[in-house]
Design goal:
elongated; mainly alpha; two-stranded antiparallel sheet; 137 residues
């Protein structure tokens, strides 16, 4: 008797264990992995410093997004009520900062180790440049 073109397996064990779902290596695919497999295949976690840098850079990235919405709203209201708003140069600087900070934050969230820390640093630098040039200058 065959099963999809392959000869059916017979019960090789005396206790009647059906090894039909076992792969060709003889290991049960539904059993828990061995210690060597779990150590080799399981991804580790970043250290506390890198996770903290990444979390704080997420807050900074969110703040840059909120500031961009505030500048856009001020520009919109300024145009509607005939008072000078922040201007298109300031709005453009904020939009560029949002694009750079968001891209760097997504990179930091998807990487580990030094690459994540450097990407978090790019988010901090982008926020600092935006604050010094557009808000405090």
């Amino acid at each position: 008797m065959t099963d999809w073109g392959r000869p059916a397996r017979r019960h090789d064990r005396a206790d009647g264990y059906d090894d039909y779902y076992a792969d060709d290596t003889g290991r049960d695919p539904y059993s828990a992995p061995t210690a060597a497999l779990s150590r080799r295949g399981a991804p580790g976690r970043d250290g506390l410093v890198v996770r903290g840098l990444r979390a704080l850079s997420g807050v900074v990235c969110g703040a840059v997004i909120v500031l961009t919405v505030v500048v856009w709203a001020a520009q919109y209201l300024g145009d509607k009520r005939d008072f000078p708003g922040p201007g298109s140069a300031s709005l453009s600087a904020h939009v560029v900062a949002v694009v750079v900070a968001s891209a760097a934050q997504m990179f930091a969230d998807r990487r580990r180790g030094l690459a994540a820390a450097v990407a978090a640093g790019v988010v901090y630098l982008t926020g600092a440049v935006l604050m010094f040039t557009q808000w405090w200058g």
